[in-house]
Design brief:
Shape: globular
Radius of gyration: 20 Å
Number of helices: 8
Strand content: 5-15%
Number of strands: 6
């Protein structure tokens, strides 16, 4: 990712815009995280709109005429839930799915969905209290993409250290200060977290939803549970998917080839209680993948 921004902006203009947009989100009483910076930087390069489309939402895709006509693919993005300091694995972590319509999970630990357009609303027990209003705009397109790729927050973290040789020499002084302010609030253990405030699943399904009493919903890169091939949305029998073609570009071995770890994780998850809503065919172990050359074709 180009950390100096698009060519038509000076570095100062670019980072002024990024920081101003995040400050505006904070001023609207929404918690911000490192993922907000990553999201704005991603948006400048992937969202075809002025200033990276600060008003462009992921749910707006549902109203795009080329999308409704079936002329473009259906985007489904995945994130893992993080609860406190609990380590993430494919057998204990709820997998959240972003579609243009909804945010939620079919995993039995949540088994619930919320309209993505209204994800910033203060839901309680699956409903909007009478004294609350519906809130839109939290599903900023850049923020959604950053949420599912927080492993790249290291790009933003580098900017907090002005002595880092990879940081542009003319980086404005206010950028490291702004990022350091968020870091001091988040703590080192949550640098890979995207904070969704407010938690739309607060009070929902308390018997199994471990996040039901949290004000904010903490989500991280969907590959942190080793499932870095996003099979998950296609594994639910009710979706009646016939065939999945997946490209494994993982760098698992010393020579930079995959060893089947991602597919193995999805298979083993399907056998665990948390994977009861999905199905996955048996796959060989890592040694078989490598020894038979299955990772090379």
């Amino acid at each position: 990712m180009n950390i100096t921004g698009p060519d038509q902006y000076s570095i100062k203009q670019y980072y002024n815009s990024v920081v101003d947009q995040i400050n505006a989100k904070a001023a609207a009483d929404f918690t911000t995280s490192i993922a907000d910076y990553l999201g704005r930087m991603i948006a400048y390069q992937l969202v075809n709109a002025t200033d990276g489309g600060p008003g462009m939402t992921f749910s707006a895709i549902a109203n795009d005429t080329t999308f409704t006509a079936g002329q473009v693919p259906l985007p489904l993005l995945l994130a893992n839930e993080r609860i406190g300091e609990k380590s993430i694995s494919y057998t204990n972590t709820t997998v959240y799915e972003f579609s243009p319509w909804e945010l939620g999970s079919s995993d039995p630990t949540l088994a619930g969905w919320v309209p993505l357009r209204f994800a910033g609303t203060k839901f309680q027990d699956g409903e909007v209290p009478e004294d609350e209003n519906c809130v839109t705009g939290l599903d900023n397109a850049g923020f959604v993409m950053a949420t599912v790729s927080t492993v790249f927050n290291s790009i933003v973290l580098n900017l907090a250290d002005s002595s880092n040789r990879n940081v542009p020499k003319d980086l404005p002084d206010f950028v490291p200060k702004a990022i350091s302010s968020i870091l001091s609030r988040q703590g080192d253990s949550k640098q890979d977290v995207a904070t969704w405030a407010h938690n739309p699943f607060a009070g929902f399904n308390p018997s199994s939803n471990l996040n039901n009493n949290h004000t904010n919903l903490a989500l991280v890169d969907g590959g942190e549970d080793l499932q870095n091939i996003p099979f998950h949305p296609h594994l639910h029998p009710e979706r009646a998917v016939d065939v999945v073609l997946a490209f494994d570009a993982s760098s698992d071995t010393e020579t930079g080839w995959p060893d089947g770890a991602a597919a193995i994780a999805s298979y083993e998850r399907s056998l665990a209680p948390i994977g009861s809503s999905s199905a996955f065919p048996p796959v060989p172990d890592k040694n078989t993948f490598v020894n038979l050359g299955l990772n090379a074709r």
